[in-house]
Amino acid sequence: MQHIQGISRHQLQMSSLEDKISADNSVRFIDVFVNHIDFEKLGFESKVLKTQGRPSFATTIFLKLYLYGYLNGVRSSRRLEKECFRNIKVQWLLEDIRPNYHSIADFRKENPKALKELFKLFVSFLKDADLIAGETIAIDGTKSRAHNSKKANFNQKKIDKHKEYIDTKSQEYLDQLEQNDIQENPVAIKNIQQKIERLKQNKIKYELLEEELKQSREPQVSTTDSDARALLVQGQVVEVSYNIQAAVDHKHNLVVATHTINRNDKNALSSIALEVKENLALETLTVLVDKGYHNGRELHTCKQNNITTIVAVPEQGKSNENGTQPEYLVSKFIYNKEDNTYSCPEGQTLTTTGRWHKKTGRTEESGYRFQKYRTSACKTCPVKDRCTSRKGGREIDRSEYAEAVEENHQRYKANAQLYRKRQEINEHIFGTIKRKWGYSYTDLIGLEKVNGEHSLIMLVYNIKRSINILGVPNLIAKIKTWNSPYKRKAWLFAKTTYIKLFLAQIIFRTTQNTSKFNVA
């Protein structure tokens, strides 16, 4: 015999599903974790038993199935249904219960807030298990493609372009209609009239979109997923997507806070930093963030909440031949806090009247107040043409958040080595989730539902990483001894387990008696 021989397919084997699952298999941890928590406290919707029809599936079934699916790159409800029939691990995990794909899909859509709470619960477990330090946190965001094409996303410029095209084509068709009318060509006339009618319908559609855009007070509108937005992904590349925010602890690179937004990172720092503080119950922490998050208001909010920020500073305005030269950039002007003045490189003092001016943004949140600083010495200054092209002389604006910005700038310069660790802490997480697992898009519609799915993805990432750190047996031991605020009542779990064992014993005895009867 030159080759290894297999076991005959017709060989009868006496074994159970329990025998086929090793002690270090991840499904064992999923089973213990899900059985450990109280679903009602977390906000999961449970199906009520109706007077007619068959009993509903338990919430635990769907959660176990989704945790296993996302842990192994399977998130389609139809594919998860197939796994229930062909995957021994899933059969063990669900005790051979096989829900249909429609029920599987409904669970994810109906429980986005509960999935978010489940992520937070697991973060608290990781902190209690001493896997999270909670001292230095790296924050970053990544884009997840929305279930909405670019063609189904419109801004005012795009709508105007379409309307202009319709007007141009309509005029062309009207000219052709007039020529064919003279030539008495009824077939061509009918064809052109149909095209004109189609253009009229399209124009009505774009006018309705324009009205919707004005009423929403948003810069753009999406027709498939109304919450999705066209966001800058990289360079000049734009995708209709969502922005996943993630905060990662430096100790074991575990995600400690996450939520999804439909805007860029500019106004996102304080919300994710405060979420970290809440999830870990911290008094203070240090966050490392890239320059895309640099915003005076956000830095000020973090400062007020005892959050130390080390945010990269964007490049200052560039010099030009006809204007400000490098040696006279605003960074070269020194602010004197005691008398609220600026000293210019030439030794002159710029003062303010104390009046606050308001700069308005696209939204109320993006506006801020500032003071203006000037000096009359500019009129006779010999280097005025190198400092400013403004006829009235150099003018400096100081934001109400300038103090927080300057303090952050000093910390950034003083902690260059610490800041370099930012990429090491959080960049590989998005690489794992998007490139290795393929979770670079979402099929769910609506910001709330998308938030729920992304919380589930981050939860699964934490589970997989904690298994790699401690191993399944050790993690199970910790979860069993963990005093969770959402712990399922022990008597209820024991009662359910007892009933299952009791029923199994009855079935075994019945089978044994039937076998004896057949032998007799």
Q: What is the number of strand segments?
A: 14
* Percent in strands: 5-15%
**Tally of separate helices:** 18
Helix content: 40-55%
Gyration radius (Cα, Å) is 32 Å
- Show unreliable segments: 491-495, 516-520
* Category by helix and strand content: alpha+beta
Mean pLDDT: 87
The backbone outline, from C-alpha atoms, is: flat
Largest sheet: 6 strands, mixed
Oligomer designation: single chain
Question: Your description of this structure?
Answer:
By secondary structure, the chain is α+β, with helices and mostly antiparallel strands. The chain is 49% helix and 14% strand. It contains 18 helices and 14 strands. The strands form four sheets. Strands 1, 4, 5, 6, 7 and 8 form a six-stranded mixed β-sheet that branches. A hairpin with a 2-residue loop joins strand 4 (229-234) and strand 5. The longest helix is centred in the middle third of the chain and has 31 residues, at 186-216. The model is unreliable at 491-495 and 516-520 (pLDDT under 50).
How would the blueprint of this fold be written?
Elements: H1 17-20, H2 26-36, H3 39-42, H4 59-71, H5 77-86, H6 88-93, H7 101-110, H8 112-128, E1 136-145, E2 153-155, H9 156-183, H10 186-216, E3 220-222, E4 229-234, E5 237-249, E6 255-261, H11 269-280, E7 285-289, H12 296-304, E8 307-311, E9 334-336, E10 341-343, E11 349-350, E12 357-359, E13 368-373, H13 384-387, E14 396-399, H14 402-414, H15 416-436, H16 447-470, H17 472-481, H18 490-519
Parallel strand pairs: 1-7, 7-8
Antiparallel strand pairs: 1-5, 2-3, 4-5, 5-6, 9-10, 10-11, 12-13, 13-14
